Protein backbone atom coordinates (compact mmCIF):
# COMPACT_ATOMS: atom_id res chain seq x y z
CA UNK A 1 0.00 0.00 0.00
CA UNK A 2 2.69 2.39 0.99
CA UNK A 3 4.71 1.48 -2.01
CA UNK A 4 1.74 1.79 -4.16
CA UNK A 5 1.12 5.36 -3.32
CA UNK A 6 4.78 6.07 -3.48
CA UNK A 7 4.90 4.91 -7.03
CA UNK A 8 1.72 6.62 -7.84
CA UNK A 9 3.03 9.95 -6.72
CA UNK A 10 6.28 9.33 -8.46
CA UNK A 11 4.33 8.81 -11.59
CA UNK A 12 2.41 11.94 -11.16
CA UNK A 13 5.50 13.99 -10.75
CA UNK A 14 7.04 12.39 -13.75
CA UNK A 15 3.86 13.18 -15.52
CA UNK A 16 4.13 16.84 -14.67
CA UNK A 17 7.77 17.13 -15.45
CA UNK A 18 7.17 15.41 -18.64
CA UNK A 19 4.34 17.59 -19.69
CA UNK A 20 6.59 20.58 -19.60
CA UNK A 21 9.51 18.86 -20.98
CA UNK A 22 7.71 17.28 -23.73
CA UNK A 23 6.58 20.42 -25.26
CA UNK A 24 9.97 21.92 -24.91
CA UNK A 25 11.64 19.14 -26.72
CA UNK A 26 9.05 18.49 -29.25
CA UNK A 27 10.46 20.72 -31.87
CA UNK A 28 13.58 18.69 -32.21
CA UNK A 29 12.53 16.25 -34.78
CA UNK A 30 9.79 14.05 -33.72
CA UNK A 31 6.48 15.31 -34.77
CA UNK A 32 5.77 11.75 -35.52
CA UNK A 33 6.28 10.86 -32.00
CA UNK A 34 4.66 13.84 -30.56
CA UNK A 35 1.27 13.67 -32.10
CA UNK A 36 -0.41 10.41 -31.60
CA UNK A 37 2.16 9.05 -29.28
CA UNK A 38 2.12 11.79 -26.82
CA UNK A 39 -0.52 10.19 -24.76
CA UNK A 40 1.52 7.19 -24.17
CA UNK A 41 4.58 9.12 -23.49
CA UNK A 42 2.88 10.67 -20.63
CA UNK A 43 1.92 7.50 -18.99
CA UNK A 44 5.30 6.14 -18.98
CA UNK A 45 6.84 9.40 -18.26
CA UNK A 46 8.53 9.75 -21.56
CA UNK A 47 12.07 9.66 -22.67
CA UNK A 48 14.91 11.09 -20.74
CA UNK A 49 13.24 13.07 -18.08
CA UNK A 50 16.52 14.70 -17.88
CA UNK A 51 16.93 15.04 -21.53
CA UNK A 52 19.65 16.57 -23.43
CA UNK A 53 20.79 19.71 -21.81
CA UNK A 54 23.44 20.29 -24.36
CA UNK A 55 23.35 17.80 -27.11
CA UNK A 56 26.47 16.91 -28.86
CA UNK A 57 27.88 18.55 -31.85
CA UNK A 58 27.79 17.61 -35.43
CA UNK A 59 25.96 14.40 -35.80
CA UNK A 60 24.79 13.05 -38.99
CA UNK A 61 21.34 11.74 -39.37
CA UNK A 62 20.76 8.13 -38.71
CA UNK A 63 23.62 7.91 -41.08
CA UNK A 64 23.87 6.74 -44.61
CA UNK A 65 27.24 5.07 -45.10
CA UNK A 66 28.21 1.51 -45.69
CA UNK A 67 26.14 -1.39 -44.67
CA UNK A 68 22.47 -0.74 -44.61
CA UNK A 69 22.20 1.33 -41.51
CA UNK A 70 19.01 3.11 -40.82
CA UNK A 71 18.05 3.55 -44.38
CA UNK A 72 15.27 1.36 -45.51
CA UNK A 73 12.90 2.92 -43.13
CA UNK A 74 13.12 6.65 -43.04
CA UNK A 75 9.94 6.65 -41.13
CA UNK A 76 9.98 4.64 -38.01
CA UNK A 77 6.81 2.87 -38.77
CA UNK A 78 6.99 1.98 -42.38
CA UNK A 79 3.97 -0.08 -43.11
CA UNK A 80 1.43 1.61 -41.03
CA UNK A 81 1.48 5.34 -41.26
CA UNK A 82 -0.20 6.91 -38.36
CA UNK A 83 -3.42 5.08 -38.51
CA UNK A 84 -3.64 4.14 -34.95
CA UNK A 85 -5.54 6.38 -32.69
CA UNK A 86 -5.57 9.72 -34.22
CA UNK A 87 -8.50 10.04 -36.50
CA UNK A 88 -11.55 9.80 -34.47
CA UNK A 89 -11.33 11.04 -31.00
CA UNK A 90 -10.79 7.88 -29.13
CA UNK A 91 -12.95 7.29 -26.21
CA UNK A 92 -10.05 8.98 -24.71
CA UNK A 93 -9.86 8.82 -21.18
CA UNK A 94 -6.78 10.64 -22.02
CA UNK A 95 -4.16 8.07 -21.95
CA UNK A 96 -5.59 6.57 -18.97
CA UNK A 97 -4.72 8.71 -16.12
CA UNK A 98 -1.29 7.73 -15.12
CA UNK A 99 -2.78 5.08 -13.05
CA UNK A 100 -4.93 7.45 -11.21
CA UNK A 101 -3.49 7.21 -7.83
CA UNK A 102 -6.68 7.63 -6.01
CA UNK A 103 -9.07 5.72 -8.14
CA UNK A 104 -7.97 2.52 -6.63
CA UNK A 105 -8.63 1.58 -3.17
CA UNK A 106 -9.62 4.37 -0.95
CA UNK A 107 -11.92 6.83 -2.49
CA UNK A 108 -14.70 5.96 -4.79
CA UNK A 109 -13.53 6.55 -8.26
CA UNK A 110 -13.19 10.25 -8.69
CA UNK A 111 -14.41 9.91 -12.19
CA UNK A 112 -11.10 10.71 -13.67
CA UNK A 113 -10.33 12.79 -16.57
CA UNK A 114 -13.11 11.72 -18.78
CA UNK A 115 -12.04 14.47 -21.03
CA UNK A 116 -14.87 15.86 -22.93
CA UNK A 117 -16.97 17.81 -20.60
CA UNK A 118 -19.07 14.78 -21.07
CA UNK A 119 -22.52 16.11 -21.14
CA UNK A 120 -24.95 13.72 -19.67
CA UNK A 121 -25.37 10.64 -21.69
CA UNK A 122 -28.21 9.78 -23.83
CA UNK A 123 -31.70 9.94 -22.71
CA UNK A 124 -32.66 8.61 -19.39
CA UNK A 125 -31.16 10.73 -16.78
CA UNK A 126 -30.19 8.47 -13.99
CA UNK A 127 -33.06 7.87 -11.74
CA UNK A 128 -32.64 9.39 -8.40
CA UNK A 129 -33.01 6.29 -6.42
CA UNK A 130 -30.92 3.36 -7.22
CA UNK A 131 -32.95 0.30 -7.02
CA UNK A 132 -32.19 -1.97 -4.20
CA UNK A 133 -29.15 -4.02 -4.86
CA UNK A 134 -30.07 -7.24 -6.42
CA UNK A 135 -28.32 -9.82 -8.36
CA UNK A 136 -29.75 -8.83 -11.63
CA UNK A 137 -31.00 -5.48 -12.58
CA UNK A 138 -34.47 -4.94 -11.38
CA UNK A 139 -36.62 -6.41 -13.98
CA UNK A 140 -39.85 -8.06 -13.31
CA UNK A 141 -41.74 -6.44 -10.61
CA UNK A 142 -42.95 -8.95 -8.12
CA UNK A 143 -45.88 -10.81 -9.32
CA UNK A 144 -48.95 -9.92 -7.54
CA UNK A 145 -52.38 -11.08 -7.96
CA UNK A 146 -54.73 -9.61 -10.36
CA UNK A 147 -55.33 -6.07 -11.29
CA UNK A 148 -52.01 -4.74 -10.53
CA UNK A 149 -52.29 -1.10 -10.92
CA UNK A 150 -50.21 -1.13 -14.04
CA UNK A 151 -46.96 -0.82 -12.20
CA UNK A 152 -45.14 1.97 -13.83
CA UNK A 153 -42.09 0.46 -15.44
CA UNK A 154 -39.15 0.85 -13.14
CA UNK A 155 -37.03 3.65 -14.39
CA UNK A 156 -34.04 2.51 -16.41
CA UNK A 157 -31.31 2.28 -13.84
CA UNK A 158 -28.27 2.53 -16.07
CA UNK A 159 -26.58 5.56 -17.43
CA UNK A 160 -26.66 4.07 -20.89
CA UNK A 161 -26.97 0.84 -22.74
CA UNK A 162 -23.21 0.50 -23.03
CA UNK A 163 -23.03 0.76 -19.29
CA UNK A 164 -25.67 -1.89 -18.91
CA UNK A 165 -23.64 -4.23 -21.07
CA UNK A 166 -20.61 -3.63 -18.92
CA UNK A 167 -22.71 -4.16 -15.81
CA UNK A 168 -23.43 -7.73 -16.82
CA UNK A 169 -19.78 -8.39 -17.55
CA UNK A 170 -18.77 -7.21 -14.10
CA UNK A 171 -21.51 -9.22 -12.44
CA UNK A 172 -20.46 -12.36 -14.26
CA UNK A 173 -16.85 -11.86 -13.32
CA UNK A 174 -17.22 -10.78 -9.73
CA UNK A 175 -18.06 -14.20 -8.28
CA UNK A 176 -14.81 -15.56 -9.72
CA UNK A 177 -12.82 -13.26 -7.49
CA UNK A 178 -12.47 -15.11 -4.26
CA UNK A 179 -9.75 -12.94 -2.85
CA UNK A 180 -10.28 -9.21 -2.79
CA UNK A 181 -8.19 -7.93 0.07
CA UNK A 182 -8.62 -4.31 -0.88
CA UNK A 183 -12.37 -4.50 -1.29
CA UNK A 184 -12.30 -3.35 -4.84
CA UNK A 185 -14.53 -5.95 -6.43
CA UNK A 186 -16.80 -5.49 -3.49
CA UNK A 187 -17.68 -2.07 -4.84
CA UNK A 188 -18.71 -3.59 -8.13
CA UNK A 189 -22.39 -3.79 -7.33
CA UNK A 190 -25.45 -1.95 -8.43
CA UNK A 191 -26.14 -0.15 -11.66
CA UNK A 192 -23.74 2.74 -11.17
CA UNK A 193 -20.90 1.06 -12.94
CA UNK A 194 -19.03 4.30 -13.44
CA UNK A 195 -18.66 4.52 -9.69
CA UNK A 196 -17.12 1.09 -9.30
CA UNK A 197 -13.61 1.26 -7.99
CA UNK A 198 -11.14 1.29 -10.82
CA UNK A 199 -13.66 1.99 -13.54
CA UNK A 200 -13.23 4.97 -15.79
CA UNK A 201 -16.12 5.98 -17.99
CA UNK A 202 -16.12 8.24 -20.99
CA UNK A 203 -18.36 9.15 -23.83
CA UNK A 204 -18.35 6.51 -26.52
CA UNK A 205 -17.35 8.22 -29.73
CA UNK A 206 -19.66 6.16 -31.88
CA UNK A 207 -22.65 5.54 -29.71
CA UNK A 208 -22.43 8.95 -28.08
CA UNK A 209 -23.25 7.56 -24.71
CA UNK A 210 -21.37 6.79 -21.54
CA UNK A 211 -19.27 3.65 -21.68
CA UNK A 212 -16.62 1.88 -19.64
CA UNK A 213 -13.46 3.16 -21.21
CA UNK A 214 -10.89 1.94 -18.77
CA UNK A 215 -10.26 -0.30 -15.84
CA UNK A 216 -7.45 0.25 -13.43
CA UNK A 217 -7.05 -2.54 -10.93
CA UNK A 218 -3.35 -2.14 -10.42
CA UNK A 219 -2.37 -3.64 -7.12
CA UNK A 220 -5.82 -5.04 -6.38
CA UNK A 221 -4.30 -8.46 -5.59
CA UNK A 222 -7.36 -10.26 -6.88
CA UNK A 223 -7.17 -14.01 -6.59
CA UNK A 224 -9.49 -16.72 -7.82
CA UNK A 225 -10.77 -20.05 -6.75
CA UNK A 226 -8.27 -22.84 -7.08
CA UNK A 227 -5.67 -20.29 -8.01
CA UNK A 228 -7.52 -19.64 -11.24
CA UNK A 229 -8.63 -16.27 -12.41
CA UNK A 230 -9.11 -16.05 -16.16
CA UNK A 231 -9.14 -12.92 -18.23
CA UNK A 232 -11.43 -14.63 -20.67
CA UNK A 233 -14.96 -13.40 -20.44
CA UNK A 234 -13.89 -10.26 -18.70
CA UNK A 235 -11.22 -8.29 -20.49
CA UNK A 236 -12.53 -9.29 -23.89
CA UNK A 237 -16.14 -8.63 -23.02
CA UNK A 238 -15.65 -5.06 -21.91
CA UNK A 239 -15.97 -4.00 -25.49
CA UNK A 240 -15.39 -0.30 -25.08
CA UNK A 241 -12.17 -0.52 -23.12
CA UNK A 242 -9.34 1.73 -24.07
CA UNK A 243 -7.07 0.59 -21.29
CA UNK A 244 -6.78 -2.29 -18.90
CA UNK A 245 -4.28 -1.95 -16.09
CA UNK A 246 -4.02 -5.05 -13.96
CA UNK A 247 -0.58 -4.94 -12.39
CA UNK A 248 -0.14 -7.20 -9.36
CA UNK A 249 -3.12 -9.50 -9.46
CA UNK A 250 -3.33 -13.25 -9.86
CA UNK A 251 -4.76 -13.57 -13.32
CA UNK A 252 -3.97 -16.92 -14.87
CA UNK A 253 -4.24 -18.54 -18.26
CA UNK A 254 -3.66 -16.53 -21.36
CA UNK A 255 -4.77 -13.38 -23.03
CA UNK A 256 -8.25 -13.71 -24.56
CA UNK A 257 -8.34 -14.01 -28.30
CA UNK A 258 -10.98 -11.40 -28.59
CA UNK A 259 -8.88 -8.54 -27.34
CA UNK A 260 -8.33 -8.00 -31.01
CA UNK A 261 -11.93 -6.90 -31.22
CA UNK A 262 -11.61 -4.09 -28.74
CA UNK A 263 -11.58 -1.21 -31.13
CA UNK A 264 -10.22 1.44 -28.87
CA UNK A 265 -7.85 -0.69 -26.94
CA UNK A 266 -4.49 0.90 -26.66
CA UNK A 267 -2.99 0.00 -23.32
CA UNK A 268 -2.60 -3.44 -21.85
CA UNK A 269 -0.80 -3.88 -18.59
CA UNK A 270 -0.81 -7.46 -17.31
CA UNK A 271 2.38 -7.15 -15.34
CA UNK A 272 3.01 -9.20 -12.24
CA UNK A 273 0.31 -11.79 -12.72
CA UNK A 274 0.53 -15.54 -13.18
CA UNK A 275 0.08 -15.78 -16.90
CA UNK A 276 1.73 -18.71 -18.60
CA UNK A 277 2.41 -20.15 -21.99
CA UNK A 278 4.19 -18.73 -24.97
CA UNK A 279 4.11 -15.15 -26.01
CA UNK A 280 0.41 -14.25 -26.12
CA UNK A 281 -0.01 -13.91 -29.83
CA UNK A 282 -3.55 -12.82 -29.19
CA UNK A 283 -2.33 -9.32 -28.59
CA UNK A 284 -0.82 -9.11 -32.03
CA UNK A 285 -4.22 -8.60 -33.54
CA UNK A 286 -4.99 -5.72 -31.23
CA UNK A 287 -3.65 -3.32 -33.74
CA UNK A 288 -4.37 -0.15 -31.83
CA UNK A 289 -2.22 -1.18 -28.94
CA UNK A 290 0.47 1.31 -28.04
CA UNK A 291 1.50 0.03 -24.65
CA UNK A 292 2.14 -3.59 -23.84
CA UNK A 293 3.41 -4.59 -20.45
CA UNK A 294 3.81 -8.32 -19.81
CA UNK A 295 6.64 -8.16 -17.32
CA UNK A 296 6.72 -10.41 -14.27
CA UNK A 297 4.69 -13.32 -15.58
CA UNK A 298 5.63 -16.84 -16.63
CA UNK A 299 5.66 -16.43 -20.37
CA UNK A 300 8.24 -18.69 -21.95
CA UNK A 301 9.63 -19.82 -25.26
CA UNK A 302 10.18 -17.39 -28.05
CA UNK A 303 8.92 -13.99 -28.88
CA UNK A 304 7.37 -13.91 -32.31
CA UNK A 305 8.92 -11.50 -34.79
CA UNK A 306 5.45 -10.07 -35.29
CA UNK A 307 5.81 -8.37 -31.97
CA UNK A 308 8.19 -5.92 -33.50
CA UNK A 309 5.60 -4.98 -36.06
CA UNK A 310 3.21 -3.79 -33.41
CA UNK A 311 2.90 -0.07 -33.46
CA UNK A 312 3.64 0.26 -29.77
CA UNK A 313 5.62 2.80 -27.84
CA UNK A 314 6.37 0.59 -24.92
CA UNK A 315 7.17 -3.08 -24.82
CA UNK A 316 7.97 -4.48 -21.41
CA UNK A 317 8.83 -8.16 -21.53
CA UNK A 318 11.21 -8.34 -18.63
CA UNK A 319 11.17 -10.95 -15.89
CA UNK A 320 9.57 -13.80 -17.79
CA UNK A 321 11.12 -17.02 -19.02
CA UNK A 322 11.64 -16.24 -22.67
CA UNK A 323 14.52 -18.42 -23.72
CA UNK A 324 15.13 -18.08 -27.43
CA UNK A 325 16.86 -15.62 -29.69
CA UNK A 326 15.62 -12.09 -29.90
CA UNK A 327 14.03 -11.97 -33.35
CA UNK A 328 16.20 -10.42 -36.03
CA UNK A 329 13.71 -7.74 -36.92
CA UNK A 330 14.01 -6.02 -33.54
CA UNK A 331 14.92 -2.77 -35.23
CA UNK A 332 11.67 -2.53 -37.09
CA UNK A 333 9.79 -1.81 -33.89
CA UNK A 334 8.86 1.81 -33.30
CA UNK A 335 8.92 1.33 -29.53
CA UNK A 336 10.69 3.89 -27.39
CA UNK A 337 11.16 1.61 -24.42
CA UNK A 338 12.16 -2.03 -24.58
CA UNK A 339 12.81 -4.24 -21.63
CA UNK A 340 14.06 -7.72 -22.36
CA UNK A 341 15.75 -7.88 -19.00
CA UNK A 342 15.87 -10.91 -16.73
CA UNK A 343 14.73 -13.57 -19.14
CA UNK A 344 16.86 -16.26 -20.73
CA UNK A 345 17.22 -14.77 -24.16
CA UNK A 346 20.10 -16.27 -26.12
CA UNK A 347 22.06 -15.38 -29.21
CA UNK A 348 23.31 -12.00 -30.32
CA UNK A 349 21.77 -8.57 -30.23
CA UNK A 350 20.23 -8.23 -33.68
CA UNK A 351 22.06 -5.91 -36.04
CA UNK A 352 18.79 -4.44 -37.12
CA UNK A 353 18.72 -2.53 -33.86
CA UNK A 354 20.32 0.38 -35.69
CA UNK A 355 17.14 0.88 -37.66
CA UNK A 356 15.44 2.02 -34.50
CA UNK A 357 17.71 5.03 -34.40
CA UNK A 358 14.92 7.56 -34.59
CA UNK A 359 12.70 6.02 -31.97
CA UNK A 360 14.57 4.00 -29.41
CA UNK A 361 15.17 5.79 -26.12
CA UNK A 362 15.86 3.08 -23.61
CA UNK A 363 16.65 -0.58 -23.98
CA UNK A 364 17.40 -3.09 -21.26
CA UNK A 365 18.95 -6.41 -22.24
CA UNK A 366 20.42 -7.10 -18.84
CA UNK A 367 20.28 -10.45 -17.11
CA UNK A 368 19.97 -12.78 -20.09
CA UNK A 369 22.23 -15.24 -21.86
CA UNK A 370 23.08 -13.15 -24.86
CA UNK A 371 26.24 -14.13 -26.68
CA UNK A 372 28.44 -12.86 -29.47
CA UNK A 373 29.98 -9.47 -30.12
CA UNK A 374 28.14 -6.19 -30.12
CA UNK A 375 27.01 -5.10 -33.58
CA UNK A 376 28.47 -1.74 -34.51
CA UNK A 377 24.96 -0.69 -35.58
CA UNK A 378 24.19 0.08 -31.97
CA UNK A 379 26.09 3.28 -32.63
CA UNK A 380 23.23 4.54 -34.74
CA UNK A 381 20.99 4.90 -31.72
CA UNK A 382 21.47 8.60 -31.40
CA UNK A 383 18.25 9.11 -29.45
CA UNK A 384 19.04 6.50 -26.85
CA UNK A 385 19.62 7.55 -23.28
CA UNK A 386 19.86 4.09 -21.75
CA UNK A 387 21.61 1.01 -23.06
CA UNK A 388 22.16 -1.83 -20.64
CA UNK A 389 23.52 -5.24 -21.59
CA UNK A 390 24.95 -6.10 -18.20
CA UNK A 391 25.08 -9.67 -16.92
CA UNK A 392 25.10 -11.55 -20.19
CA UNK A 393 27.68 -13.66 -22.00
CA UNK A 394 28.66 -11.03 -24.53
CA UNK A 395 32.21 -10.63 -25.71
CA UNK A 396 34.47 -8.63 -28.02
CA UNK A 397 35.66 -5.04 -27.78
CA UNK A 398 33.45 -1.98 -27.47
CA UNK A 399 32.62 -0.91 -31.02
CA UNK A 400 34.01 2.55 -31.73
CA UNK A 401 30.59 3.42 -33.04
CA UNK A 402 29.50 3.80 -29.43
CA UNK A 403 31.07 7.24 -29.58
CA UNK A 404 28.04 8.19 -31.70
CA UNK A 405 25.54 7.53 -28.92
CA UNK A 406 24.90 11.21 -28.71
CA UNK A 407 22.38 11.23 -25.90
CA UNK A 408 23.47 8.27 -23.91
CA UNK A 409 23.34 8.74 -20.15
CA UNK A 410 23.39 5.20 -18.83
CA UNK A 411 25.70 2.78 -20.51
CA UNK A 412 26.11 -0.51 -18.75
CA UNK A 413 28.27 -3.32 -20.10
CA UNK A 414 29.15 -4.82 -16.73
CA UNK A 415 29.55 -8.54 -16.07
CA UNK A 416 30.20 -9.89 -19.52
CA UNK A 417 33.33 -11.03 -21.32
CA UNK A 418 34.22 -7.84 -23.09
CA UNK A 419 37.89 -7.11 -23.58
CA UNK A 420 40.41 -4.78 -25.13
CA UNK A 421 41.10 -1.09 -24.68
CA UNK A 422 38.20 1.21 -23.88
CA UNK A 423 37.77 3.60 -26.82
CA UNK A 424 38.59 7.07 -25.56
CA UNK A 425 35.93 8.72 -27.67
CA UNK A 426 33.22 6.89 -25.82
CA UNK A 427 34.40 8.49 -22.61
CA UNK A 428 33.96 11.93 -24.10
CA UNK A 429 30.24 11.53 -24.71
CA UNK A 430 28.89 14.58 -23.02
CA UNK A 431 25.74 13.16 -21.48
CA UNK A 432 27.29 10.04 -20.11
CA UNK A 433 26.52 10.01 -16.42
CA UNK A 434 26.73 6.37 -15.47
CA UNK A 435 29.09 4.12 -17.38
CA UNK A 436 29.89 0.69 -16.05
CA UNK A 437 32.42 -1.72 -17.48
CA UNK A 438 32.87 -3.64 -14.25
CA UNK A 439 33.65 -7.32 -14.28
CA UNK A 440 34.95 -7.80 -17.81
CA UNK A 441 38.40 -8.15 -19.34
CA UNK A 442 39.18 -4.62 -20.43
CA UNK A 443 42.88 -3.88 -20.55
CA UNK A 444 43.37 -0.16 -21.02
CA UNK A 445 41.80 3.15 -20.21
CA UNK A 446 43.13 6.45 -21.56
CA UNK A 447 43.11 9.94 -20.08
CA UNK A 448 39.52 10.78 -21.03
CA UNK A 449 38.21 7.67 -19.41
CA UNK A 450 40.33 8.31 -16.36
CA UNK A 451 38.65 11.66 -15.98
CA UNK A 452 35.32 9.88 -15.83
CA UNK A 453 36.69 7.42 -13.33
CA UNK A 454 37.83 10.25 -11.17
CA UNK A 455 34.32 11.64 -11.13
CA UNK A 456 33.07 8.19 -10.25
CA UNK A 457 30.96 8.08 -13.37
CA UNK A 458 32.93 5.21 -14.86
CA UNK A 459 33.30 1.94 -13.02
CA UNK A 460 36.12 -0.35 -14.19
CA UNK A 461 36.39 -2.64 -11.20
CA UNK A 462 37.24 -6.29 -11.83
CA UNK A 463 38.90 -5.98 -15.20
CA UNK A 464 42.45 -6.54 -16.35
CA UNK A 465 43.75 -2.99 -16.26
CA UNK A 466 47.35 -2.88 -15.12
CA UNK A 467 47.97 -0.63 -12.20
CA UNK A 468 44.31 -0.14 -11.31
CA UNK A 469 43.04 -1.29 -7.97
CA UNK A 470 40.30 -3.89 -7.70
CA UNK A 471 41.15 -5.81 -10.82
CA UNK A 472 40.89 -9.49 -11.65
CA UNK A 473 43.89 -11.59 -10.80
CA UNK A 474 46.68 -12.11 -13.23
CA UNK A 475 45.75 -15.76 -13.45
CA UNK A 476 42.19 -14.96 -14.35
CA UNK A 477 43.27 -12.52 -17.01
CA UNK A 478 45.89 -14.85 -18.42
CA UNK A 479 43.47 -17.69 -18.60
CA UNK A 480 41.03 -15.55 -20.50
CA UNK A 481 43.54 -14.17 -22.97
CA UNK A 482 45.28 -17.47 -23.55
CA UNK A 483 42.52 -18.37 -25.96
CA UNK A 484 42.39 -16.56 -29.27
CA UNK A 485 39.49 -14.15 -29.43
CA UNK A 486 38.00 -12.62 -32.49
CA UNK A 487 34.71 -11.17 -33.49
CA UNK A 488 33.23 -12.11 -36.83
CA UNK A 489 32.71 -8.43 -37.47
CA UNK A 490 36.21 -7.40 -36.41
CA UNK A 491 36.61 -4.74 -39.10
CA UNK A 492 33.42 -3.02 -38.22
CA UNK A 493 34.55 -2.58 -34.67
CA UNK A 494 36.42 0.57 -35.56
CA UNK A 495 33.82 2.02 -37.86
CA UNK A 496 32.40 5.31 -36.64
CA UNK A 497 29.11 6.17 -38.33
CA UNK A 498 28.90 9.80 -37.29
CA UNK A 499 30.94 12.90 -37.68
CA UNK A 500 31.69 13.85 -34.16
CA UNK A 501 35.24 12.99 -33.78
CA UNK A 502 37.95 14.27 -31.66
CA UNK A 503 39.55 16.73 -33.87
CA UNK A 504 42.61 17.77 -32.04
CA UNK A 505 41.19 21.21 -31.42
CA UNK A 506 37.73 20.08 -30.48
CA UNK A 507 36.45 21.69 -27.40
CA UNK A 508 36.14 18.97 -24.84
CA UNK A 509 32.63 18.67 -23.64
CA UNK A 510 32.17 19.13 -19.96
CA UNK A 511 30.51 16.22 -18.29
CA UNK A 512 27.79 17.19 -16.09
CA UNK A 513 26.36 15.35 -13.22
CA UNK A 514 25.37 11.79 -12.77
CA UNK A 515 22.63 10.43 -14.90
CA UNK A 516 19.19 10.72 -13.49
CA UNK A 517 17.36 7.50 -12.89
CA UNK A 518 16.15 6.29 -16.22
CA UNK A 519 12.55 5.37 -16.48
CA UNK A 520 12.73 1.90 -17.78
CA UNK A 521 14.60 0.69 -14.73
CA UNK A 522 11.35 1.16 -12.91
CA UNK A 523 10.04 -1.76 -14.91
CA UNK A 524 12.41 -4.04 -13.06
CA UNK A 525 10.30 -3.65 -9.99
CA UNK A 526 7.27 -5.87 -9.77
CA UNK A 527 4.73 -3.37 -8.80
CA UNK A 528 3.51 -0.60 -10.95
CA UNK A 529 5.96 2.18 -11.56
C1 LIG B 1 -2.21 -12.75 -5.35
O1 LIG B 1 -0.91 -12.29 -5.64
C2 LIG B 1 -0.30 -11.54 -4.62
C3 LIG B 1 1.06 -11.11 -5.11
O2 LIG B 1 0.99 -10.49 -6.34
C4 LIG B 1 -0.22 -12.36 -3.36
O3 LIG B 1 0.32 -11.56 -2.33
C5 LIG B 1 -1.59 -12.85 -2.97
O4 LIG B 1 -1.50 -13.66 -1.87
C6 LIG B 1 -2.23 -13.61 -4.11
N1 LIG B 1 -3.56 -14.00 -3.73
C7 LIG B 1 -4.07 -15.16 -4.11
C8 LIG B 1 -5.42 -15.47 -3.61
O5 LIG B 1 -3.49 -15.94 -4.84
C1 LIG C 1 -8.39 1.09 -34.29
O1 LIG C 1 -8.97 2.34 -34.09
C2 LIG C 1 -9.67 2.84 -35.21
C3 LIG C 1 -10.12 4.25 -34.91
O2 LIG C 1 -10.27 4.49 -33.58
C4 LIG C 1 -10.82 1.90 -35.54
O3 LIG C 1 -11.53 2.38 -36.64
C5 LIG C 1 -10.28 0.53 -35.81
O4 LIG C 1 -11.31 -0.37 -36.03
C6 LIG C 1 -9.44 0.05 -34.65
N1 LIG C 1 -8.79 -1.20 -34.95
C7 LIG C 1 -9.21 -2.36 -34.44
C8 LIG C 1 -8.42 -3.57 -34.79
O5 LIG C 1 -10.15 -2.45 -33.69
C1 LIG D 1 24.97 3.92 -11.74
O1 LIG D 1 23.87 3.05 -11.71
C2 LIG D 1 23.97 1.99 -10.78
C3 LIG D 1 22.74 1.17 -10.90
O2 LIG D 1 22.57 0.71 -12.19
C4 LIG D 1 24.12 2.54 -9.38
O3 LIG D 1 24.29 1.49 -8.47
C5 LIG D 1 25.30 3.47 -9.33
O4 LIG D 1 25.38 4.06 -8.07
C6 LIG D 1 25.18 4.55 -10.38
N1 LIG D 1 26.37 5.35 -10.38
C7 LIG D 1 26.34 6.67 -10.39
C8 LIG D 1 27.62 7.37 -10.40
O5 LIG D 1 25.28 7.29 -10.42
Automatic annotation (TrEMBL):
Signal peptide coordinates: 1-27
Top-rank taxon: Eukaryota
CC annotations in GO: extracellular region; membrane
Keyword flag Cytoplasm: no
Compositional bias segments (type: Pro residues): 52-131
Pfam families documented for this protein: LRR_1
Keywords: Glycoprotein, Leucine-rich repeat, Membrane, Repeat, Secreted, Signal
Comp. bias regions, Basic residues: 132-147
InterPro entries membership: Leu-rich_rpt (IPR001611), LRR_dom_sf (IPR032675), LRR_extensin-like_regulator (IPR051582)
Chain positions covered by the region annotation Disordered: 46-158, 506-529
Subcellular location: Membrane; Secreted
Protein name: Leucine-rich repeat-containing N-terminal plant-type domain-containing protein
Species in which this protein is naturally found: Prunus persica (Peach)
Lineage: Eukaryota, Viridiplantae, Streptophyta, Embryophyta, Tracheophyta
